[in-house]
Amino acid sequence: MSEEEKLINMFPSAPRDKVVNLLHRKGFEKAKKQLETEYKLVKPLTPEEQFEALCTKFPNISRIHIEEIYKENMQGIQETEKQLNEEIKKKKQQDKTPDVETHRYKYDFHAQSKAQAVEEFNRFLQCAIEQNLPYDTEYELIVGKGLHSINNFPVIKTTILELCETRGIKAEVVKENTGVVRVWPFQKSHN
Prior knowledge:
Elements: H1 3-10, H2 16-26, H3 28-38, H4 47-57, H5 63-72, H6 77-94, E1 105-108, H7 114-131, E2 139-142, H8 155-167, E3 169-173, E4 180-188
Parallel strand pairs: 1-2
Antiparallel strand pairs: 2-4, 3-4
Helix pairs in contact: 1-2, 2-3, 5-6, 7-8
């Protein structure tokens, strides 16, 4: 690894051109010292620290499963994290089948940006139409309570409710769980 690459990896928030300029003007050690005063030094994690970070980030996945995937992906934490996120996404997509007890369809909008939620909502409506289900079919859209959003503002929930309102679709927030919006895509709202 070149000195330039080392400095860029150590100070990822520093602009690349600044790192290169300092390196050429002052040399590695002096450039490193100056960058340490201006930017946060990122210490590479040991494999054990990477594993623990993954276990903390994915508390609902067993440590054994995380370890298996981590060992599979010799590239390290980024590839393991990517694979775990894909598994979670697949699981959420499987939830789009009707709940046997309630006969409700569920869609999970967690961890999506506003733009992704709008795109997913449009796909949801298209699927609802294509499934040709009865008029009174009810869907539960899991939008979250906004606890992880800036200022705890429920961006996804607000976006979904606005989309329903502009399209005249009947929707309501579930009283028992304010992180869920119940939607009847084939019924008009009475607002």
